[in-house]
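ok trying this again, last paste got cut off
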Amino acid sequence: MADVMSMEDIRAEAARLNIDLSSVDWNSIRLPPGEDFGIKSDDDDLNEEDSLEFDAGFGNIIVVDNLPVVPREKFEKLEGVVRKIYSQIGVIKENGLWMPVEEDTGKTRGYCFIEYNTPQEAELAKEKTNGYKLDRAHIFAVNMFDEIEKFMKVPDEWAPPEIKPYTPGENLQHWLTDEKGRDQFVIRAGSDTEVLWNDARQVKADPVYKRPFWTESFVQWSPLGTYLATVHRQGAAVWGGATTFNRLMRYAHPQVKLIDFSPGEKYLVTYSSHEPSNPRDTHRVVLNIFDVRTGKVMRDFKGSADEFAIGGTGGFTGVSWPVFRWGGGKEDKYFARMGKNVISVYETETFSLIDKKSIKVENVMDFSWSPTDPIFALFVPELGGGNQPARVSLFQIPSKEELRQKNLFSVNDCKMYWQSNGEYLAVKVDRYTKTKKSTYTGFELFRIKERDIPIEVFELDNKNDKVIAFAWEPKGHRFGVIHGDNPRPDVSFYSVKGGKVAKLVTLKQKQANHLFWSPGGRFVILAGLKGFNGQLEFYNVDELETMATAEHFMATDIEWDPTGRYVATSVTSVHEMENGFNIWSFNGKLLYRILKDHFFQFLWRPRPPSFLSPEKEEEIMKNLKKYSKKYDVQDQDISVLLSEQDREKRKQLKEEWERWVNEWKKHHEEEKMDRQMLRDGEASDVEEEYEAKEIEVEELLDVSEEVQDV
């Protein structure tokens, strides 16, 4: 190992060599292989684990038992079947498949050894094929070769296992027990990532945890708020804890670009794309699905970018994201992806296709899961020049039964919007006019929970209006639509309660292009982002009245907190000026503002669903005054405290002012004799006691002589 120098020695050596350390790019420095200069890396534990796996010797070999026992003439056929199954999982080494044979009979012994390139491939092969049913009589039993020694050491006589005392782990939901009922949020600015409490009563953000260079690209909360995920070149990691943020698990995936949690937080999907060796080839894509708690790869998907470029809303190098869409509610039972003319639905018990085959749908363009049930809707455009109409279909999983279908004619485009409880599906359909020169918009409303799933068709008052935005009220029966022409479109609210779509109100000429509903419903923000420069209108849909109007100049993002009490507006680094965020009350009162240079992200920490039944929640709402007394007292105490703080602050300002006045009085007194001398002995400083006199003073400025000729 090289000699270790102290920082003082480094500065001295740099000064001797005339090197300015402030101009050195430390990130460009690479240590010699195997040398750490006495500084332990944060990733050493990963390297140690990897080296242990590779140095174990047999960690990349599996033993496959319960193979058919066949004579020598069928040996090659059986070997070909086994090789085909296991080469799909990883690369088998040359001469890496060995099937022992009985010397006496020449028949196989019913098992084989397979050697992969890496231990990870061997582990995955064991996980995927243990219990694989080759036929009725042969179900594979797969073990790691390293485990054979462990099995041979099993004692002949059974002994009861040693009972270890239970040591509870950290409560990862501890943050939900905050006595003040506050919510947390995470921000990224510059190189720092910071988690804070939203202490709106104290009108400030209260720090929880701060770490520089915590992530190399972005951070992401898990859907229920249990974990905070970070992304690095080596892979992803999740963090959490009772009082601070500890690293709970790592997920090795080099050059990972994107991540996505399943709704119930059981699984994490990671994505990377890699440059092809041949410029004419497309990027190679790698997708891993990890078990969040154990860190094990449950399944991986590899292929060209073209194979994953269908569906989704965005991604890298042409790949749509998310590639996999999760269904079945918070149980994480199913996930699906769309391919060319197919929708492939997988179940998470075995991570294989349901019924081992995809659902064939000719020319399918889009699909979307219900947020609560194993039902998805799909859209198929017109085929054959309009001879075969477009359609929207609903499918039940795992039966793959088509529950409902609606044919659509003269369709230009179609978008699907699920209500958060899965009770309604709104399909926005843009249709061509008879002349095919323009389009108009209509809606098809599916009532999912009602018998036979009735469908209602409705249009805007002016069906030629362009629809700019559509949003369902969370857990509610209302939705909002922004429609018309910029720069001042109209905003309409509708209700679907009572079996019929009814318009509630139309707000004329609003500077809005986005709708942001409160998670609790009732309140909505009509926001004008981008071209509208951050216009905000806080609207109460129950009372059909505007609560407040405001502006957050150049705002790029708006996000309600999970309770619907507060909302954050932010200006990220896409703009060079005014970076930072504002926190508002639900009714549009600005509570506090924090400016941050190079501001990248603001994310509220999600909350898990309430354990209370709908009946209990309704009972609490009816008796809210009784339950709110405790918090009214707390609010009053905080109000008194804030008033005392204000009074103390004013008192300090007054005392500071008086100190300043007294200091200048003292200074004024010390200069009294000097002023008296300047006034020719007059002692008074009162200007009114002096009489102003005008004195004419003649002053000789210049004398010159001129000689004149006579």
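PB: full thing came through this time. Confidence is low (pLDDT under 50) at residues 44-56, 312-317.
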